[in-house]
Amino acid sequence: MKPKEIDETGPRRARGRPRDWHDKTEQNTIKSLDRAMEILEFLSESRGMALTAIAGQMGQSPATVYRVLVTLEGRGLVEFEPDEQLWHVGAGAFVIGARFLRRTSLVERARPVLRTLMEETGETANLGIAKEAAVLFLSQVETEASIRAFFPPGTLSPLHASGIGKAILAHMDDARRDRLLGVAGLAAFTEHTLTDLQLLRDDLQQIRARGYAVDNEEKTAGMRCIAAPVFDLSGEIVAGLSVSGPTSRIDRDQIPALSGRVIAAARALTAAIGGPVTPPRT
Question: How many domains does the chain have?
Fold first, then answer.
């Protein structure tokens, strides 16, 4: 019997993907799985949809969509509401999404900072990161006030009409910022939204200089937000912290005092994840 060859270089390193991982051709794509993920993503954008509506809007046969939904239901990724005959995203999808948040210590480290910020200001505190041309809200500590802002984890908001979004844009390199804004455009949400690119650039320059951003009813009338940037170990912008609430409580006279607390909170989180306490400005 031929002796077994011994690899003297040590144990072979485990691979997370095959050598041809970059090959995205049809042979490496599971069509049924891709279709299922497409249906799940589509359903997640609604507050519940009927089978016929999903099939019609996606251009799929009801039988195919039904089989996918039943399979996802078995894993808890979708749920069916029999009274109204509507399908919804299930708790299982949230559990998987929550596990994504544990990939980084950012969310974990931010929780006590957000809690303190909410207690100091009396307003809802938020954490968000950039996801393409939008802010993806990762965490929130709500105020107990009856009228309050609400951005549950997973909520997306346009970068140009968000306090956190503008704080991130102000510290983003010019090429990436212009690319994102060029693709997404500057949609108007209220009469205060900055839809002129030069006006937005001027605002971003001021944000970078003073260290905080203000969403002055630019996304939602009657709501104001104050945000500051969070930096990682390399001094790169990685997230933003904010407080948000109605203009009846966050009036213009309160912005200087509140901005100081938001900046302090953002610097505390920056330090907690190993970033520079005083980020370099250019």
Answer: 2
| Element containing residue 93 per DSSP (H, E) | helix 91-101
Domain span including residue 53:
26-95
The CATH number given to whatever domain includes residue 211 is 3.30.450.40
pTM attached to this predicted model: 0.67
Predicted local distance difference test score (pLDDT) of residue 280: 45
279 inside domain: no
Cβ 200 vs Cβ 194: under 8 Å = yes
Q: Please give the span between the terminal C-alpha atoms of the chain, in angstroms, as a whole number.
A: 70
Which two structure tokens, joined as six digits, stand for 123?
């307003």
Residue carrying structure tokens 């891709």:
34
User: Do 125 and 252 belong to one domain?
Assistant: yes
Mark 114-126 as b/e (b = at least 16 C-beta within 10 Å).
bebbbeebebbbb
pLDDT exceeds 70 at position 15: no
Tell me: pLDDT of 26 over 50.
Answer: yes
Distances (CA, A) of 113 to 2, 85, 243, 265: 64, 42, 12, 6
Same domain, 85 and 211: no
CB-side neighbour CA atoms (13 Å) of 101: 20
Report the DSSP pairing between strands 124-131 and 86-89.
unpaired
Q: Which of 95, 113, 141 is the last residue of a domain?
A: 95
Domain assignment present for residue 5? The answer is no
| Chain centroid offset of residue 144 CA | 23
pLDDT given at position 226 = 98
- The reply to whether 51 and 160 lie within a common domain is no
Q: Is residue 12 part of a domain?
A: no
The string of pLDDT tens digits covering residues 141-180 is 998 877 777 777 888 999 999 999 999 999 999 899 989 8
